[in-house]
Amino acid sequence: MARGQKRSWGGGGGRGGGRGGNEWKQDKDKRPKAQQEYLGRNDMSNAAFEEYYLAQDIVPDGEWGAFLAALKRPLPVTFRINGSGRFADHLRDRLQTDFFAQFGDGQLKVDGEPVTPPLSLPWYPNGYAWQLEFSRNQLRKLPLLERIHKFVVAANDAGSISRQEAVSMVPPLFLDVQPHHKVLDMCAAPGSKTFQLLESLHAGSRPGQTPPGLVMANDADFMRCNLLTHQTKRVCSPCLLVVNHDASRLPASLLPPPLPGGGRAPRVEVRFDRILADVPCSGDGTMRKSPDIWRRWNLSGGNSLHPIQLRIAMHGAKMLEVGGRMVYSTCTFNPVEDEAVVAELLVRCKGAMELVDVSDCLPALRRMPGKHAWKVKDRYRFYDTWDEAKDICYKLEQSMFATPEKAALPLERCMRFLPHHGDTGGFFVAVLRKVGELPPEAGGPKPAAAAAAANGADVEAADDAAEEAGDAAAALAAALAAGAEDGDGGDADVKPDGEGEAAAAETAAAPEPEAAAPEVTPLEAARSAAEAALASAEAAVAAYEAGDQDAASRAAAHADACARRAATAAAPKRQQREPRQQQQQQGGRKGGKGADAAGGADAGEDEGDDDAPGTTGQLVNVSWVRGGGGRGRPTGGKFAYLDPVAPLEDEETLSTLFEYYGMPADFPLRRWVGTRCAGVGGGAGGLWAAGPRRPRRFGM
User: Which residue ranges have biased composition labelled Low complexity (predicted)?
Assistant: First the structure.
């Protein structure tokens, strides 16, 4: 291509010539229709949407036509007056006298089209919320409407009012926030509801007085956090904290400063009196302000968001103070994202959470009760129960389905807002109250953690021990199941592994038998290791209940190691012969050219040797091992030909590290340091800080 010549996508000549320009124009014309022209009312249709919600029966009989017609109309402009007290009353009165009174009895017209007078939302307290429904043509031709528009824009920029969708104002009103409450907004951006929460927190305060409560506003998207900060800075409140975190993993405890005597204080649980969980959703309730949803709507949005919504709601219940109130809300009509999440939360909490009857709150606000039964659909068909769907469904989960247990819950206390009932968007709200601590399996305090906290021990360590013990028990069950499939377990009395130094000394002192002992079968070895894992797991829990952190950590690590040995021994050995070319490549990586030449004759002997050094077939007493395996072995795959990584659990080496680096005795080094070397048993390969997901370089 000559210098200065422009490359064209069409393969034709240079600048302005050939087929390039024509093909570019052709591709440009293939843009989606929604980007080429405004979506007309006749284009607002979606057969899948109508089929799905007709089957869900969310609209009363005889109102389906009005429901669709309302969804196709533009959403009116609504705003609310910020704050409370004399200033808010004065602004409301000025709006009524200076602007709204000029509409008279509603006979004002533009080009023969009647102008709808401003409407005060009857259910919003003190008459602070208003609805304006003007067309663009009316706004341009009527000076009064233009003045109202300019006033609303200026007041919004000044922070006197906030433009906000009508049904979006509902969830904070049901929270009943008081000035002394600690409030959490889990999915806060863009911040209109957070603004309402701050207003409720400051309500009744004297000028210059700071309420004792606070509002923590969180959002997972840091760009939306900027929008949240911009929206809430107009309230000028010192009681606001904006954080950027995954709502389902917000920190639930804080580490206080060390005690004066050098001890370590227990962690402080983070609890809130009020929590708003306005979770991410498919958003089909916002069709009136986002008409492109008509084209994009499909079932995959709601089905894929259900697990995320459930995790956020469960974590919110965990962080809620006993006696506190949580509001779960979405802007969708979908029962899979609404009632299904609330019902599953109530079932998992086992009576610790309950639905609140708020039928007497905001009586002028029309609402539909929640449903006790609903259907779930994948890309192919509808299902009524999980038993019907579990073997043939596509990307569905059991928590999505209604059950007799869920049908017995008071789900009618949930609220669904339909657009044709109040000329609004669609919304769903459920008000919940926490009446007791959650069960441990739902995120509540674990018995070992509670005992450790009572003894002044580290709660995080107790949680880790309980999780390790649970993992060991799960591995034990898997090992026994694998053993049952492998053959008959027998009733032999196998002595558990790991009964201490006395058992080892007794074994060493025993005279050698005259005849060789029968070879231990893999099933017997698995059973012995599994029994040792179970005994060590019970010892770990007992040690944490007694407050002995070091002994419990060692017992938990030993339980996990024994469980892994049991699973490895019980798994059937699968020998996989690899092509000769692949064997030569492996040999070249391990030992270079010389290894290829020397290892070719012995390839048949070494193949399938699971106990060779540096493989996971070598049973070592460590909590976990990564790398050093092979295809078909327990830790094969992409780490098969890497040097193994294992935790550093040698007490002599650990003591040297503590002394050399001057670390305090309570530093949790034993849980976070590992070693990488050519053989699992030893060697110098550097230390690794081993996090819960992957090793990370530590030092040396």
Answer: 501-524, 563-573
